[in-house]
Design brief:
The chain is mostly helical. Among the domains are: 202 residues, Tetratricopeptide repeat domain (Serine Threonine Protein Phosphatase 5, Tetratricopeptide repeat); 69 residues; 152 residues, Histidine kinase-like ATPase, C-terminal domain (Heat Shock Protein 90, 2-Layer Sandwich), CATH 3.30.565.10. Helix content is 75%, strand content 6%. The protein is flat, with a radius of gyration of 33 Å.
């Protein structure tokens, strides 16, 4: 704003000077709200000095909006109310005033929302909604409806939230506002998830993700991926949930977005604690809590105090658990959010239960159940009922315990909440055993074991074996009791050997003492026949541990060594593709597109490999269609040449121009060549050459990839093409080696009717060859 104009306004010049000042304040408000506020204050002083009521109202209006952008919400509310009074005194055209009042009421509602005064926020939003409709401002009306939906969702008023969001979605779709439609679809998906309507949740979240990908809105994709992860988690699809979470986390870390990181860490904490990995859960909870405290996110802070308290409870550190849970409860009560406080009531009850304070435990758990039922939240009600059942069981009130466990099981089963269903079944097994109904006890324990297998929960599995062992012992089936008792110990040790924190082993002290007593009795009645059975079971357990370790290695490799770098590559390429400056550079734009296509193809391959059934069974389906092998080879060599150049390695090709068509799966063929070229570059010294040839003749197409690396020893040749094989050669550039590449090559080549072999000697490099029958058009 020119200095002359400011002086003129203060000296009582015409109204136009004040108007210019307010126009400038409006233009700079988003980029420089402090400057906008200063200009509006000067304009207001000038208008008040000269008694121009209309301009006083407009200046206060501008001050309200600037204060809201600056985060000075209490002052924004006060100034907004003064502005409304100024407008009433000035009077204005009805249509124009409706638009102005809609904007102002929306700003005041937003300030109340930021102050967590949600009822006042809704009051002002409702007035803003009416004013915007009266003014015919559909864009603002959609924005206000979105805000109304968000406040209702925060208050757990999900039906009202959906009503507002659906109206906003229709308006944005009609207006062609793709970005707004994507956001609202995501919000609707989140509300359905809160209602445990996972089908609709997934439907709207996937719709949101498709729109955001079309818009190339990377940051918003992270938010939706995190929500999709939560839906997968609620459905018990933990592997898929982890994939979604890590995709979201990679975006957040790439963009430096702490809000995304905190949200993902919080959900990962919940997932890891559900799967029984408590040290991993505690690590993520503390990370999320630290971010929430740095950013002043009160809700996240309370949520993470709750999680940390729960994990300390699992560790047996009850004082620390109570301290964290009471901090969370204080925040929930300070902002008047009883709905969010319900899980904290539950965990306070759980701590009291573990301390033997059963009366206090029932009091806290009763509060949690009342809140859940009042809000119509069957998921939390199922949780509370199961915990109340535990307390009644500990008090010896078996009928009450059975009633609570059965109600919890039925609710959990109807919601697809498999973990809680399994825990309720374990409780029913204990109750029926103590009541003498041993067949029922065994049936409930076996149902819990089946549930554990469905959700891959080793914790529930070993507890189910524990229940079966005790029930069968009561029935006099000592052989069956021993078998399940050994499974119980094997699984329990596997769970707790994976945890390095001694605190979490304390949690099992009581169970260990009880197990020792039962061990003494079981071993006292053991016979020679049972000794032989035990030896057989030990051998089977050793083999099972080897298989499980191999699976865990595979999951670790895909989750960490493949997925994270691939996600980062995709995101970086997407960002570069969106950059107009990069696109304007000669040839660069096309290369970025090539990178993005290659990374997308690898993402598809990685997704296939995540299914263990596809690798270990005959369910891997490959296409059988004519494919031009030479074209795939050229594309693969071009891509790997860039990576090789970073190690000063040349990639040369000699590709036959004759017909090199083969019958196979294009994606699988490309992965075969990618693995061979990647290995050659990985193990070649700097300054060397990797040479690829493709020849066609005698009814076959052969591709050979030769490197100048250290070659293979006899021991290497014996292990070649095995899963997770570690060869003597080491990567020359510090690259990682999963031991999977050549195994995948062999599987794909042989399933497409080809053969693969290696010619090599120590110190003479290696030549990997793949050969397929030429496609003659009759295949």
């Amino acid at each position: 704003m020119p200095e002359a104009l400011r002086t003129e306004a203060f000296t009582g010049a015409d109204e136009q000077a004040v108007e210019h000042m307010l126009d400038h304040a409006e233009r700079v408000r988003e980029a420089n709200p402090a400057e906008a506020l200063r200009l509006a204050e000067e304009a207001c002083a000038a208008a008040e000095q000269h008694g121009i009521a209309a301009q006083v109202g407009r200046a206060r209006h501008a001050m309200t909006l600037a204060l809201a952008v600056l985060g000075r919400h209490k002052q924004a509310v006060e100034m907004g109310c003064k502005t409304l009074r100024a407008y009433e005194l000035a009077g204005s055209n009805g249509h124009a005033r409706a638009g102005t009042e809609a904007e102002l009421h929306e700003a005041i509602g937003g300030a109340y929302r930021a102050l967590c005064d949600f009822r006042n926020a809704l009051s002002f939003y409702d007035y803003a909604r009416t004013a915007a409709a009266r003014a015919g401002d559909t864009e603002r009306l959609a924005s206000i409806l979105k805000a109304i939906g968000t406040v209702h969702a925060t208050l757990h008023e999900y039906a009202e939230a959906l009503d507002a969001y659906m109206l906003a979605l229709d308006l944005m779709r009609a207006a062609g506002d793709t970005r707004g439609e994507a956001v609202i679809a995501g919000n609707i998906g989140n509300v359905y998830a809160q209602q445990s309507d996972h089908r609709n949740a997934r439907k709207y979240l996937l719709r949101s993700l498709r729109l955001k990908r079309a818009l190339k809105d990377v940051r918003s994709q992270a938010v939706t991926l995190n929500s999709l992860g939560l839906v997968c988690q609620r459905l018990g699809k933990y592997a898929r949930a982890v994939t979604r979470y890590h995709e979201s986390l990679a975006i957040g870390q790439l963009l430096g977005d702490q809000a995304v990181e905190a949200a993902v860490y919080g959900n990962l904490c919940a997932l890891y604690q559900e799967s029984g990995d408590y040290p991993g859960a505690l690590e993520y909870a503390i990370k999320s809590l630290e971010i929430a405290q740095r950013t002043g996110d009160t809700y996240s802070e309370a949520y993470n105090y709750h999680n940390v308290g729960f994990l300390y409870m699992k560790a047996g550190d009850y004082d620390a658990a109570l301290a964290c849970l009471h901090k969370a409860l204080a925040i929930w009560e300070a902002i008047g959010d009883q709905r969010s406080a319900a899980p904290t009531y539950t965990n306070l009850g759980a701590v009291c239960y573990r301390r033997g304070a059963y009366g206090e435990a029932l009091e806290w758990l009763g509060k949690s159940l009342d809140v859940a039922r009042g809000a119509g939240d069957e998921r939390d009600a199922a949780n509370a009922l199961c915990d109340i059942g535990d307390v009644h069981y500990a008090m010896g009130d078996l009928p009450s315990a059975a009633t609570c466990f059965e109600q919890s099981r039925a609710l959990a089963a109807s919601l697809g909440h498999r973990r809680r269903e399994g825990e309720a079944l374990l409780g029913l097994s204990d109750v029926r055993r103590e009541q003498g109904y041993l067949d029922d006890a065994c049936a409930h324990a076996r149902a819990a074991l089946e549930t554990a297998g469905t959700i891959e929960s080793q914790e529930i599995a070993y507890k189910a074996h524990h229940c079966l062992s005790r029930a069968l012992e009561r029935k006099g089936d000592h052989r069956g009791a021993l078998a399940h008792h050994q499974e119980f110990h094997a699984l329990k040790e596997r769970v707790f050997n994976d945890t390095s924190d001694a605190h979490f082993k304390k949690l099992q002290a009581v169970h260990e003492a009880e197990a020792a007593k039962r061990d003494a009795e079981l071993y006292r009645v053991r016979t020679v026949e049972l000794d032989a059975l035990n030896a057989q079971l030990q051998r089977a357990n050793q083999r099972l541990e080897e298989v499980i370790r191999e699976k865990k290695d595979l999951l670790h490799i895909v989750a960490h060594d493949l997925r994270n770098p691939l996600t980062a590559l995709l995101l970086t390429a997407s960002v570069l593709e969106e950059d107009e400056r990069i696109a304007a550079l000669p040839d660069v734009g096309g290369q970025v597109g090539t990178v993005l296509r290659a990374a997308s193809r690898m993402e598809l391959i990685t997704s296939r490999l995540l299914s263990s059934e596809m690798i270990e069974s005959d369910e891997l389906k490959l296409a059988s269609e004519p494919v031009e092998f030479a074209a795939i080879a050229r594309e693969a060599a071009a891509q790997h040449a860039a990576a090789a150049a970073q190690k000063n390695i040349a990639v040369t090709t000699a590709i036959d121009e004759l017909d090199t068509r083969v019958c196979g799966d294009a994606g699988a063929l490309r992965q075969v060549l990618d693995n061979l070229l990647s290995n050659a570059v990985k193990y070649s010294p700097q300054g060397s050459t990797v040479h690829m040839t493709v020849t066609a003749g005698s009814g076959v197409v052969r591709c050979s990839v030769r490197d100048e690396g250290p070659g293979l020893t006899e021991e290497d040749r014996r292990k070649l093409f095995r899963k997770f094989a570690r060869l003597s050669a080491k990567p020359t550039g510090g690259e990682t080696s999963t031991g999977l590449g050549l195994s995948i090559v062999k599987t794909f080549v042989e399933r497409m009717g080809g053969r693969v072999w290696c010619d090599s000697a120590p110190g003479a490099g290696a030549v990997f060859n793949v050969e397929f029958a030429r496609d003659t058009g009759r295949t």
